[in-house]
Amino acid sequence: MEPAQLDRTPFADLDAMPPDMFAMLVAALEGMSRHPEIRRVRHTAWQALRPAPGQRLLDAGCGAGDVARALAAAVAPGGEVVALDYSAATLAAARERHDGGDIRYVTGDVSNLDLDDDTFDGVWCERVLQHVQDADVAIGELIRVTRPGGRVCLLDTDWGSLAFDGVDAGLAQTIVGHMHGRLTPRQLDMGRTLRRRLVGYGLHDIAATPVTCYFPEPASAAVVLPMVNPEVPQEAWMTPAGLRERWFDQVDRAGASGEFLAVLTIWVVAATV
Ligand SMILES: C[S@@+](CC[C@H](N)C(=O)[O-])C[C@H]1O[C@@H](n2cnc3c(N)ncnc32)[C@H](O)[C@@H]1O
């Protein structure tokens, strides 16, 4: 299925990836799911969504399905999770990992959902809106399919909050500036805009929590931050000659001396329809 409104950043067009790159991105999603800082973000979202037995929930942009499987366990018995992603290859990866919960896997575009109005008790949408061209259209769709009184829970990165210490500040700034729009999505500040967008839609009981993820070692940061991940292929960087090498030299030194630090805020914003 060809979604109507996508930017062409990696997660916006997973089906167009060469197989080795696709496998790397799915492995990256799974690595993130296991990372304690992402678990902390998800714990905050879990408290905000409050999944309960018998509910019907939507995981919009479900990726490899880790959250959908956890939600399915939480809504059992009697509940159901619809795990939706525009990428057929990603949904196939999610299906391969299915653990028996009540999950229906569907392809679809979050900006144009082929789902009925008012049919979900809650929606989880994690790190998807930063990849779509018009987040308000997508949020409108998520609200449309949620029943009155149901909860919409949005999680998104604020790439503008990314900061490093222990490395050359000018070089870090150059790298971050260069990576934005290449390894990171074009809508860099999506996380901080979520609250405003839900206010605009007239939702109530809005709970907005900025969760600042803290990475005191390069290996830990590399799981979430592509610009610290030496596994990201050289060709994806598109940096001027020598820049990548100078950067990793800095990162490795800072890691070895214990001085490396990176922080990134991910927002969790939930509201009642
Ligand atoms: C960064 S991944 C996050 C996946 C998952 N939510 C997680 O947190 O592990 C972004 C996901 O959004 C999906 N996606 C991107 N644009 C989409 C769209 N317009 N409609 C539905 N899914 C989309 C991608 O295929 C990918 O699986």
Automatic annotation (TrEMBL):
<dbReference type="Pfam" id="PF08241">
    <property type="entry name" value="Methyltransf_11"/>
</dbReference>
<dbReference type="GO" id="GO:0008757">
    <property type="term" value="F:S-adenosylmethionine-dependent methyltransferase activity"/>
</dbReference>
<dbReference type="InterPro" id="IPR029063">
    <property type="entry name" value="SAM-dependent_MTases_sf"/>
</dbReference>
<feature type="domain" description="Methyltransferase type 11">
    <location>
        <begin position="58"/>
        <end position="153"/>
    </location>
</feature>
<protein>
    <recommendedName>
        <fullName>Methyltransferase type 11 domain-containing protein</fullName>
    </recommendedName>
</protein>
<dbReference type="InterPro" id="IPR013216">
    <property type="entry name" value="Methyltransf_11"/>
</dbReference>
